[in-house]
Design a protein that fits this description.
The complex is a heterotrimer of chains A (56), B (241) and C (334).
Chain A lengths: L16 E4 L2 E4 H19 L11
Antiparallel strand pairs in A: 1-2
Chain B lengths: L11 H7 L7 H12 L2 H4 L3 E3 L9 H22 L3 H4 L1 H30 L8 H23 L4 H16 L11 H30 L31
Chain C lengths: L3 H9 L16 E3 L2 H23 L9 H7 L1 H12 L27 H5 L7 H11 L5 H12 L2 H15 L5 E3 L2 E3 L8 H14 L1 H7 L10 H9 L2 H8 L23 H5 L12 H17 L10 H5 L2 H4 L1 H13 L1
Antiparallel strand pairs in C: 2-3
Helix pairs in contact in C: 3-4, 3-9, 4-8, 4-9, 6-9, 7-9
The chains are: A alpha+beta (56), B mainly alpha (241), C mainly alpha (334).
């Protein structure tokens, strides 16, 4: 039972960070924020079809 | 009409039906106000205006669903106590569910915020909806903060000894002692969740009360107050206020 | 039919403001199942969270104890302990809410809520971190004698002893061999014994317990051991390695490669820029800025200019393009 709860990817190693001017951000946070922006853009751009939508 | 006092042969429905309503009662007044503000068809509508047609609209309900998962996983952690997740792999898994549901909660909440900002969703007497939303966000940050403080590991040691400086500078450290684990745990599992749930509840009820904010007028049209704004094809569920 | 928005405008004598008001919707409605939508959202979130938990798990770095600190770096522990005894440590000179130290409270002009609220969690580092724990040690006549000699000495004599020791303990000649601190010879009075025995007590684990249970058996308030540990460099070095320091935008970060609290990005940003990054009032300044900005976000509907950004940015044209398309079709065919 214990083995099945160990993670598939070990995230406990030394963190990876990006330095850009005064900005220092972890890869994890950057990916998270990047995905948020992409999801927001996708949510606006992807067409929304209503259920059983015929002519309008 | 007199009150009937002989109950032997009466069903309770007859007795209720024969009593005139006492409209001066606080109970009756409150009930009237509630039903007027949120009649059933507005509280739980089965239709939405045609302009609700974008995937951005699902992020409010995704945030709600994430909050539900945060609360359920937090409840499991509470059932077994604050040490459990350090000593059991099942506990660590539930802790992981709790941590990731919090990340998903903030993710969806902020995408929802961006969407509502670009829709200027405070228009049309919806300012209270916007304000309760922002306050919910701020209180949620506080709830997450007390959660990080309650971890009883290196992370909470560092966070508490660092955060104390900011909080002490405002004077709040006199009452809100981030190095006091017992206090932070109680804020995290009781006080702040209650406030978050109440705020989110009011926020959602306000959305139902005013409806989803209508779009801006198309850019090429000049809006005049008397100008009709659209076709009147399908009846609105309830007269919008 | 008069819409309520129009009634409101007439009542207040205001013109229609597109950033504040709406035209009521009199158009079509479509079926929309809110309950089903919520349940689908719930299933999606549960699946997503389960996958994330299975793939990544969650971090749990073991906490530092006074024992682990003093075992790893007994010299740093001793260097910290002497500053707690002579009242020069960060905690000893912190001011409210721990103690009163002139000029220690942060302020912006005359505004200093820290000093107004005052001392609520009193800590006397010499007694609470050093002398009182040593007094709990049983059958230690040398230690008892040293504590008694120190506390009965006049304060200027105490200051001479502690100053001499503090200078020596910073020397590179200090060593820790076979469980004993070796400090260059000097006039330390009882201070050498006090710090030496406190270091041994720390390495045994007894100091952790003494600091936590100083008032009661069931301790849940870790203020004393945490503040003592944080006065040393051990905790800060570990944090620096994990990129958690304030000047590393650490507030946003988590140990290892986990995402942290990305929503704190703006709060921690202010600590990276002048004057907050070097001011002794930096914490209060950052809080003041964040309170103003948060208030601005909450009251955005009332702020002209800012509340017009959504309309000017025209992102809404993408969000409602289906609606505008329907309107355009009807207008051209109507």
């Amino acid at each position: 039972m214990g083995a099945s709860f160990a993670s598939l990817i070990n995230m406990n190693g030394p963190g990876h960070y990006i330095h850009w001017g005064i900005i220092q951000i972890s890869v994890a946070n950057l990916v998270l924020i990047g995905v948020m922006v992409l999801v927001f853009i996708a949510a606006i751009l992807i067409p929304y079809r209503r259920h059983g939508d015929g002519d309008r | 009409m007199t009150l009937r006092t002989d109950l032997d042969s009466d069903t309770s429905a007859d007795v209720v039906a024969d009593l005139p309503e006492d409209a001066d009662q606080w109970t009756a007044k409150l009930r009237h106000a509630a039903v007027e503000a949120l009649p059933p068809e507005r509280l739980m509508p089965d239709r939405q205006p045609a302009y609700v047609a974008s995937w951005i609209y699902v992020f409010g309900v995704l945030t709600l669903a994430s909050l539900a998962v945060v609360i359920v996983t937090g409840t499991v952690l509470a059932v077994f106590g604050p040490t459990w997740w350090h000593v059991s792999s099942e506990g660590l898994f539930v802790n992981s569910l709790h941590l990731w549901s919090v990340e998903v909660f903030f993710f969806t909440m902020i995408v929802h915020l961006w969407g509502k900002f670009f829709m200027a969703a405070w228009r049309g007497r919806r300012r209270a909806t916007w304000i309760t939303g922002v306050v919910s966000f701020v209180v949620s940050v506080g709830a997450a903060f007390t959660g990080y403080l309650s971890q009883q590991n290196f992370d909470s040691q560092w966070i508490s000894t660092q955060a104390k400086d900011g909080i002490n500078s405002t004077g709040a450290g006199a009452i809100f002692n981030v190095t006091n684990f017992g206090q932070m745990l109680m804020w995290h599992i009781m006080l702040l969740p209650l406030v978050v749930v109440m705020l989110v509840g009011v926020h959602v009820l306000l959305v139902r009360r005013r409806g989803v904010v209508p779009p801006f007028a198309p850019p090429d049209r000049v809006v005049r107050e008397e100008e009709p704004t659209g076709l009147r094809e399908t009846a609105a569920p309830v007269e919008q206020r | 039919m008069t819409s309520s928005a129009e009634t409101a405008n007439h009542r207040h004598g205001r013109h229609f403001n597109p950033d504040r008001d709406v035209e009521e919707w009199h158009g079509r409605y479509y079926p929309y199942d809110l309950v089903k939508e919520f349940l689908i959202a719930l299933v999606v979130v549960v699946l997503l969270v389960v996958v994330l938990a299975v793939v990544f798990s969650s971090p749990d770095e073991k906490p530092v104890t006074v024992k682990s600190w003093s075992t790893s770096n007994p010299i740093d522990f001793a260097q910290t302990a002497i500053t707690e005894l002579d009242g020069t440590s960060p905690v000893a000179t912190y001011g409210p809410p721990y103690n009163t130290t002139a000029g220690s409270s942060q302020s912006i002009g005359p505004f200093s809520p820290e000093s107004w609220l005052g001392v609520h969690h009193p800590i006397d580092t010499a007694n609470d971190f050093v002398l009182a724990p040593l007094r709990t040690l049983p059958s230690q006549p040398k230690v008892e004698a040293a504590v008694a000699k120190y506390t009965s000495a006049p304060t200027d004599q105490q200051a001479k002893w502690t100053a001499a020791y503090e200078k020596s303990i910073a020397s590179p000649k200090v060593s820790f061999i076979a469980g004993t601190l070796t400090v260059p010879t000097g006039s330390y009075g009882p201070v050498r014994t006090i710090i030496g025995s406190l270091t041994s007590m720390a390495r045994s684990g007894a100091l952790d317990g003494a600091l936590l249970s100083s008032r009661q058996f069931y301790g849940t308030d870790y203020t004393k051991p945490l503040l003592f540990i944080a006065d040393g460099t051990y905790l800060a070095d570990l944090a620096q390695n994990q990129h958690l320091s304030g000047d590393q935008w650490g507030m946003m970060n988590e140990t290892g490669n986990y995402p942290g609290q990305a929503w704190l990005w703006l709060y921690t940003f202010w600590y990276q820029v002048p004057p907050m990054n070097s001011s002794s009032n930096g914490d209060l300044q950052v809080w003041a800025i964040m309170m103003v900005l948060t208030l601005g976000l909450a009251l955005l509907p009332f702020i002209p200019g800012l509340r017009s950004i959504p309309r000017w940015s025209r992102v809404y044209r993408l969000i409602w393009r289906q609606h505008y398309g329907e309107l355009g079709g009807k207008q051209s065919s109507g």
